[in-house]
Amino acid sequence: MPTPSDARHKLDSIMTLAHVNTFHPNAFDWPKARSRENLAFLSEVAWGAPGHEGEAVAYIVKELGQLAEIERHVSATMALILSEMPLHTGLGPLGDGHELHHAVSCFAAEELHHANTFFRYVREISGLEPRLDDGLFAERLAVFQEDDHPWVKLIALCCSAYVGESVITVFEHRVDHLDPDREYFLTQLLHLHGLDEARHVQVDHFVMRDLYQELTPAQRVRTRELVGRIEELNRRLAVSFADLVKELTGVDVNTVPAAQTQLAITQAFGSRIFDEHGAPRTVDEVLDEELLDLVGGFSGVGHVHAPRRRPLSLPQPSQTSQQSETPQQSQISQQSQKSQQSQQSAGVK
Ligand SMILES: [Fe+2]
Ligand SMILES: [Fe+2]
After folding, report:
1. pLDDT per residue over 150-202, tens digit each?
2. How far is the CA of 3 from the centre of ligand 1 (A)?
3. 75 CA → ligand 1 middle, Å
């Protein structure tokens, strides 16, 4: 039977290399993001073939702009929860010590970097300022400003974030498969983002399993209510972003093939996040054959976060022109290799 000290040690292990396996937006060679070769790769990722650069850019502006908005909200809500933790007396043994405070603080700081990076990326590739008049930020924050226990808020927030983090992990697998040498900007971006996300997913799993055990039955019910509310607001946000992109670019992003697969995967992950008893579960635990085929066919990988379950293959990408490595790319490439080695040695992913 694991003790609270074991659980806190687990968190400490997750965070050990957080200062190594991470990135800063300055590390990217930003002007390269909009090069012809990089836009052709976006078409490959979004459409499965070159020649659809305009639709691909519109789709990525919608998805990554929306993701940035959600990451900014996750960061702000975590800061809010952190501010409430010292005021609560009933946090139990997992609230003792620095471990959970440190893990959530790093998570929040990293998400703000991600939001900054993705907002800059969508501006860079599109030349547009995809600013929503109504991003529902106040409404989304208000879900977590009621008189709930900090653990209820944290678990609900992580369950909701976890769905999006799992979907972007599937995308990371897809671009890694299409661009195994990580030549293109999007692959580098999602790979470096994934260094943080691999840790976030482990923190999510900790929160969904260890911290969830601390809740009373009423708090568990309330957690699911908050997840339902934030997910509904996030769905409204997605519709607003799709409308904005249609207005700015004329592209209906729902017609992009990757969007249709992504929607099916998102809906499957979201609808299966709680088991029949209401407890959270991981996305790899809910991969039945049908969902595995969908995920595997899209990403070339037979798992999301868990180790590979079965070998899968995708057709090789069509040839897009090769690029020479700039000093900035070289820096990213070296950092990626170093981080990957550190990650593997730490068993992070
Ligand atoms: Fe993120
Ligand atoms: Fe994250």
Report:
1. 999 999 999 999 999 999 999 999 999 999 999 999 999 999 999 999 999 99
2. 30
3. 9
How many angstroms is it from 1 CA to the middle of ligand 1? 33
Q: How many whole angstroms from 193 Cα to the centroid of ligand 1?
A: 6
Taking the centre of ligand 2 as the mean of its atom positions, its distance from the CA of residue 198, in whole angstroms, is 8
Sequence-distant (6+) residues with CB within 8 A of 229 are: 143
Does 258 have pLDDT greater than 90? yes
- The predicted pLDDT at position 308 comes to 54
The DSSP result for 26-89, as a single string, is GGS-GGGGGSHHHHHHHHHHHHSSSS-HHHHHHHHHHHHHHHHHHHHHHHHHHHHHHHHGGG-S
Residue with tokens 């999301």: 304
79 in Cβ contact with 119 (< 8 Å):
no
pLDDT tens for each residue of 98-135: 999 999 999 999 999 999 999 999 999 999 988 888 89
Ligand 1 centre to CA of 235 (Å) is 18
Determine the 3-state secondary structure of 211 from DSSP.
Answer: helix
Could you tell me the distance, in angstroms and rounded to a whole number, from the CA of residue 154 to the centre of ligand 1? Answer: 16
The CATH architecture to which 4-22+34-253 belongs is Orthogonal Bundle (1.10)
Find out whether 229 and 146 touch, Cβ atoms under 8 Å: no
